[in-house]
Amino acid sequence: MSDHSFELKGSLFPLSVLYCQDLSAAAVKTQLQQKLAQAPAFFYRAPVVINVESATQAPDFEAIAEVFKELELVLVGVCGASAELKKAAQAAGLAALQLSKSKTPAKETKEPETKAEAVVAATVMETKVVEQNIRSGQQIYAKGADLVIRGTVGAGAEVIADGNIHIYGTLRGKAIAGAAGDNQKRVFCHKLEAELISIAGSYWLSDSLQGEYWGKSACIGLQDDKLVLADLL
């Protein structure tokens, strides 16, 4: 009889990837401190991978790891590394991850079926309705559902949904739609003042959102793997 008390399975988790031209410990610390100042709660103990594809020599991975520890981030490993850089990273106790490959022809032939399944899933997705303001420090998660907030999402609050997010008030905190990886999901809000908006792992912080739609109603979605803002119809 097999023992099912221990299982090791593959899975997918969202990881932030750090792109930094200067991979000295001092430069990495400066860049990270700037990002943390914009959304400290979102990045607190967040798992991060460093892209070293453009590195010409091995960074001091141990010093960089100390920076991450000091800033209370979790340095998982590196990606885009040459054989030499992989050895240096692994010697410092870091994982060497592969960069995402372009889709193979075999996968491309399955795309229509996958999209059709996504459409069907969208039509049966449930909706979680919250009729109150979401205060700083609160987190609301609609697993396998759309999320409707009939109130304001305050600064420091976080709303997450595997489906779309509709906010009938001001969005000042963080909104994360398509949390299960569906890049067709969107965030709709009546007044955009967000700390962060993320869809299927792609995100913008407040400094990237402050433009034409700041302080106005907006719809945020993904187009060609990039966040785009549009009028709320």
TrEMBL record:
Q: Does the keyword Zinc apply?
A: no
Q: The Septum formation inhibitor MinC C-terminal domain covers which part of the protein?
A: 129-229
Keyword terms of this UniProt record: Cell cycle, Cell division, Septation
User: What superkingdom does the record give?
Assistant: Bacteria
The cross-references to InterPro entries, in alphabetical order and at most eight, read: CAP/MinC_C, MinC, MinC_C_sf, MinC_N, Septum_form_inhib_MinC_C
Q: Which Pfam family is one of this chain's hits?
A: MinC_N
Every copy of the Septum formation inhibitor MinC N-terminal domain together lies at 6-74
Could you tell me what this protein does? Cell division inhibitor that blocks the formation of polar Z ring septums. Rapidly oscillates between the poles of the cell to destabilize FtsZ filaments that have formed before they mature into polar Z rings. Prevents FtsZ polymerization.
How it assembles, according to the record, is: Interacts with MinD and FtsZ.
Name the family the entry cites.
Belongs to the MinC family.
Protein's name in the database: Probable septum site-determining protein MinC
Q: List the gene name.
A: minC
